[in-house]
Every structure is written in C-alpha cells, then in structure tokens.
Design a protein that fits this description.
19% of the residues lie in helices and 22% in strands.
C-alpha cells in the first residue's frame, strides 16, 4: 500500500542576476581558504531554530560555437562571475531519470582573499537516491542532479559541462563500401542549471536563548527521539554497552521489533533474515506503524507504546547491542525543519547498513561539518526534490555522528541512499571523497560504533550476511533476492564508485570492530 505523503512547506528558491567578472588569466590551483583541519569535533550548536539558508539557480548556456554544435559537440556552462555568497554547489536538470554522461568542472573564488581555485571535478552521477518505483523518486519536484560539492565560503563561480565522447560508427564491414564516422559527444540533459547553496551561519547565542523550546516541525522532529534525550536536545548522549542494553528495553516499539525478529528467525543475529519479506514499497505492516508507513505529528500510529513480554531469546538479543555513540541531533546541526515533508516514513526493520562517502570533497574542517550537512540537506530537498536529506546518519572526519533523515535515530526510517535497497536498511555517509584519499581513522571507528548500536537494536550481526529484495537498479533486477554483507558499501548494491576505494577497503575492519563492540 502506497504511503500517504504530506506536501512540504514551500521555501522560495531565489534566483539572482550574476555579474560578469573577469577571471585572472592562467589562474593556478590554489586553496580556497577553507580550513582542512582535523581538530577535535566542535560542539553542536544549541538551537531549536532552523537555519534558513538559501538556494540560487543559474541556467547554463551553450559555450561551443555554431560549428561545434553542428558537429555534435555538446558543451554548456557559465563564464566566471561574481555571485552572492555560497558554500556548496551542484548541477541540476529537469528529468530525474536522465543521466549526465560527460564531465562537470567548476572554479570558485574564495570570499576571503578573492583568489580563484583551480578546476575541480564534480561527480556527475548522484547515485545516492530513492528507489526507482517510490513516490519520492517520482515526485513532481524531483530532478536529476550531480553529487553536491562543498567549496567553502565563495563569491565567484565558473562552470563547464561537456558531453562524453562516444565511439564512432562504421557503415558496412570496413571494406570499400564502409564508412567510418568521427567520435561524437553524448547529448546533455535538458534544462541544465547550476544551483548555489548557502547553508546559513550557525545559530548565534541570541538565537539559542530566544528559542529554548522547539515548536511546530522542530518539536515533531525532536519528539521522535524523546525516549533518548529531552525535547529540543542538540545531542543524544553516548551510553556504555550495559546502559545501551538496558535502554533498548524501554525504546518505544523495540519490544515489538524483538518479537518480529524472533518470528523471522534472525533473533540470534546469525541468520540471513530471509523470512522477513517487505511489502512492495518496503513499509512496515507489522502493527507498530500504520499500513501507510507514516507518522502523523511526530507520533507513531497503531502502537500503544507497551512492550511485549520479553522471552529468553529477546533478552539474549539485547545483550548483543553495542554502546550507543554520541549523536548530534537535527536541532544540533541546525536543520530547517520547514524544508522537509512533514510526515515520517518507515521501513519494516534494519537488516543492513550501506556505507557511503558524500563525494562533497575533503576540504572542510570539523567545525564546519554542520554547515556541510545543512548544505547537503538543502540540496537533496530543494535541488533533487526529495522528502528530506537522503542519509540516515552522517559522520565527519573527526568521527562525530549526526542524525540524518528525520523520524528517530532508533527507528527504521526509510532513507534515500541506495537505489534499489532503501527498504530494510540504513544509509551512513562519511563526509568527504575517498576514491583516492584515505578516510580518517576516527570516521571508520565511528562507522563501527554506530552500526554496533543501531544494527544491534534489530538483531543484526555486523560480521554476518543478510538477504534483501532489490527494488531495481543498474546491478540487480527488481525482485531479485540479493545476499549482502550486513555492513556493505554502496557499490555492493549498485554499480558505483561509492564509497570510494579507500573507504571500501576499511569496511572489513569496521565489521570486525562493530561485532566486537556487540560482544560477538
């Protein structure tokens, strides 16, 4: 049964007139002025008020000559120009099903020092997305997008987008009658534009003092974590293993979850979970959530909050829960709750965790991580047209864990992170790009600690395997039953480079540490 989705509160997307700016000739690659420090994680801003931020869109124009276009060359972009301040960017087009086959490059001017960067590549395929058949993927607001790129505080931009070269064709068999054509270029998607995202400044002390108690959507987003932290809390505190096991017994709905997992034959965390088949849309139909899989006004429907009587197998499952990490809440990183859709959507359980890199680049400091997350959030909602940020959790280079998609950190929130496998899973994004750069050890340890706790709540063994039903993608057909690691990389479920070769190689270590933290 298709979930009932509420319409989001519209937030205007301001478009500005860009002023042409002559770029320095032969500008060399320089640092953009954004710190790349690896200092200790900064404390989360204590504010219940969402940071407004803004998105500005600039249509791309043809850059090639008439002769180029006649010859099949496809190139669009923008000349160097001064713009209002922004920190994150991406290229957007109309059709969400269309692919951009080619290369996207940008140069930006640092707001401080006014020095231009060298050309930077933008990942052309944003592979972290909703399932193909989901209402979220087919929303009228949905667009095709590149991955977002964090560039730090900037006030100038230049972009070029060029279609990929395609192989020439032969007429005939290569003999006298055959003709060989020259290499052509792939056509670019229609309606290309550059989106510039200003995530807004972190809340000031005055804003924090003026909004001590959340209201409206801020209250709803916080209320689903009320059993873990006070309403309006900017962080959920860490617990040791014994405290986490005791805490799990009083989490709303967790008793029902234990009963489900025992019935499914995965209560000991060693099975593959093949008895747990999702509905077509993957939403919960088990009595702990309504059949439309939604939450209204932050309250879980169809559940009275009482725990079922716990048997010995359920008690054993609770002893396999790892210590809960400190988690910065959405209030902590300054989420503007008026951007997302109001209602929350859940899947049945959490059988696997898909690890991603955000592909936003590594040129950020840990104190800037909340701004990076606000930028990704705004980009996913306003540019991609999704319900909320796609990931369930995010982790910065210092190992700080952040709440992602709203709905409750202990609950099986349906994300938009792994096309084809968003049902019965969670998505964890490490902020950065790790195709060539090694992930920080603190971030890998945070992946292990987070999965030991969250997967433990659902009886999953981090060193084990599970089976998920594919919703369709470029690697597995729709309906295929796929055996996957309980902790998988994005590339295990979808043909993509994500989470980058360097981070992917660390997943074996993360699995071992996660299982150890669970006491396995």
């Amino acid at each position: 049964m298709r979930p009932l989705l509420a319409s989001s509160t519209a937030v205007a997307c301001a478009v500005v007139l860009a002023l042409p700016l002559t770029a320095p000739s032969g500008a060399a690659a320089v640092r953009s002025g954004v710190a790349n420090a690896t200092a200790a994680a900064a404390p989360a801003p204590a504010s219940s008020i969402g940071v407004p931020g803004s998105t500005r869109s600039l249509p791309l124009v043809d850059l090639g000559t008439a002769a180029d276009r006649a010859g099949g060359a496809a190139e669009q972009g923008l000349s160097a120009r001064r713009v209002r301040p922004f920190s994150l960017l991406g290229v957007v087009w109309k059709d969400p099903s269309a692919e951009l086959h080619g290369r996207v490059q940008v140069r930006t001017r640092a707001a401080r020092g006014h020095v231009w960067s060298g050309w930077q590549d933008v990942q052309t395929h944003d592979d972290d997305r909703p399932d193909a058949g989901s209402p979220e993927a087919h929303s009228r607001r949905a667009h095709g997008t590149t991955a977002p790129l964090w560039v730090g505080d900037s006030d100038g931009v230049q972009v070029r987008v060029r279609g990929a070269k395609t192989a020439g064709r032969h007429g005939g068999t290569g003999h006298a009658k055959g003709r060989r054509s020259g290499a052509a270029q792939a056509a670019l998607p229609a309606g290309l534009r550059l989106d510039l995202v200003d995530p807004g400044a972190d809340p000031s002390p005055a804003q924090r003092a003026a909004n001590p108690v959340p209201t409206g959507e801020e209250a709803a987003s916080s209320d689903v974590n009320a059993q873990l932290a006070p309403l309006g809390a900017t962080e959920i505190p860490a617990l040791d293993k014994a405290e986490s096991e005791a805490d799990a017994a009083v989490i709303d709905g967790f008793g029902d979850g234990i009963a489900d997992r025992i019935a499914d034959g995965i209560g000991d965390g060693t099975g593959d979970g093949t008895g747990d088949e999702p509905s077509d849309d993957g939403t919960r139909h088990d009595g702990t959530a309504p059949q439309d899989g939604t939450v209204h006004d932050g309250k879980l429907e169809g559940h009275d909050g009482k725990l079922e009587e716990e048997g010995p197998r359920a008690a054993e499952m609770r002893r396999r829960i790892g210590p809960r990490p400190r988690i910065v809440t959405r209030s902590g990183w300054g989420a503007n709750e008026r951007l997302r859709e109001r209602r929350f959507r859940y899947t049945r359980t959490v059988k696997a965790a898909f690890v991603h890199h955000s592909a936003t680049g590594n040129n950020y400091s840990c104190s800037q991580a909340p701004r990076v997350i606000r930028g990704i959030y705004r980009y996913h909602v306003k540019s991609s047209g999704w319900r909320d940020i796609g990931y369930n959790f995010l982790i910065d280079k210092c190992g700080t864990v952040y709440e992602g998609r709203a709905g409750g950190v202990a609950k099986p929130v349906m994300g938009a992170h792994t096309l084809g496998f968003n049902s019965n899973s969670m998505g964890v994004a490490v902020l950065g790009s790790f195709a060539h750069a090694n992930p920080p050890a603190a971030a890998v340890k945070a992946v292990a600690r987070l999965t030991a706790w969250k997967l433990g709540l659902y009886g999953a063994n981090p060193r084990g395997t599970t089976r998920l039903v594919s919703g369709g993608g470029n690697r597995f057909r729709k309906g295929a039953r796929v055996k996957l690691h309980v902790i998988s990389g994005h590339r295990d479920g979808f043909a993509t480079e994500c989470p980058g070769s360097k981070l992917y190689r660390k997943l074996g270590s993360a699995r071992a540490v996660s299982a150890h933290l669970q006491g396995r």
